[in-house]
């Protein structure tokens, strides 16, 4: 094997009260896809921030292209050819695609940006990524989450990087886009570009990875394992320290016994979806399957009142909701866990208690004063019920893992007494152990009579959790029926072809 392009040795990083990295080793070779695995909180994000120059290590060395280096800041890392694509994309919504791609290293002459040249270069990069339909002049804020991910990847490629770190790059992509992404990665590695690939989807690791390193509790527990031949059970054991049953609970047989809780009739929004109708009973899980961009998220947001429907109606327990009113939906008992929980659902700098009570503030306030004791008591009740770890109601939400952050979102709606939960990608960016916990929690809530509508890009997740499934393609329902009566291949045929099952 060739000499490593990157060697990180004995990396230690401490924050107040936390030793986030405790002597981590990582070695990456040119032209390889090195997969970095670990549960949320294992230290993956801290390690890549050290590599990107965002954090300075307290101990340890970084050797790049055979030379020991100190990466003072992200610009220094980028200049050396190390590009990082974070899970939380750092794009500027008000700027164009081209401006974002070349932000900080604009193509310029005599102090003026050469916009035409940047547009052409951006167009070439987007075509290289298999997305020539994305216009370089479009404002990034108008793109879908998947489109923004593509722009972030194009930005990394614009720096002629020798190493690209990809943190959960497939989290917002549908299967076709994931395959395109893998094609781009394979093209890059053929040019001796190295890739560090972080994902919770073990099937992706098998397909695209060459070697695997595993972190647990800030330590290296395995380095350089063969990605395709290491047994899944061994990887899970290394990540969690125990054997995890990655099994979705069986569907209940009496889920149709409850009363109608959510009724959607003829719902439409111009350019997004058309004539959507469905009913969900208390205790039932309805799954929405479809590609990214099919209208799944927009349907949930319209039911929740965050978008205004052009036609149609939404009723909860027989009461019709005011069109386009979040307040009316929440008052009727509807809660939404959005796809982008960090940017759309959580106040990351606030405490667990502050986030949990956000949708029910009148209950904890009187004459403009908050009853902090009651607020913390309510948070403690949800912490115990949902097994939030660590069980600290005053801890800032940003310090929790993805799985525990998802629990905080659910706790908010359970505190309001929600009867209908709309869950958009509830396990996105969640490790295998926490995912199993969330499956059990979703099942438990349904058992307690909550009506649940679930959107997920992972078809086995939809089929495994849902009692009934709606398949959505290009904003229209192309199939509706019991989840037990359709398999993954049939769903894929439907979303790709739009033909009836």
Taking the sheet with the most strands, its summary is: 6 strands, mixed
Low-confidence stretches: none
**CATH architecture annotation of the largest domain:** 3-Layer(aba) Sandwich
CATH fold naming of the largest domain: Rossmann fold
Oligomer category: single chain
Q: Quote the beta fraction.
A: 25-35%
Number of helices: 17
Overall average pLDDT: 87
Write the layout of secondary structure elements.
Blueprint: E1 6-15, E2 18-28, E3 33-37, H1 44-52, E4 59-64, E5 67-69, H2 74-79, E6 82-85, H3 97-101, E7 108-109, E8 112-113, H4 115-128, H5 145-157, E9 163-167, H6 175-190, E10 194-198, H7 202-208, E11 211-216, E12 219-226, H8 232-240, E13 260-269, E14 273-281, E15 285-289, H9 296-303, E16 311-316, E17 319-320, H10 326-332, E18 334-337, H11 341-344, H12 352-356, E19 365-366, E20 369-370, H13 372-386, H14 402-415, E21 420-424, H15 432-447, E22 451-455, H16 459-465, E23 468-473, E24 476-482, H17 488-497
Parallel strand pairs: 3-10, 3-11, 6-9, 9-10, 15-22, 15-23, 18-21, 21-22
Antiparallel strand pairs: 1-2, 1-4, 4-5, 7-8, 11-12, 13-14, 13-16, 16-17, 19-20, 23-24
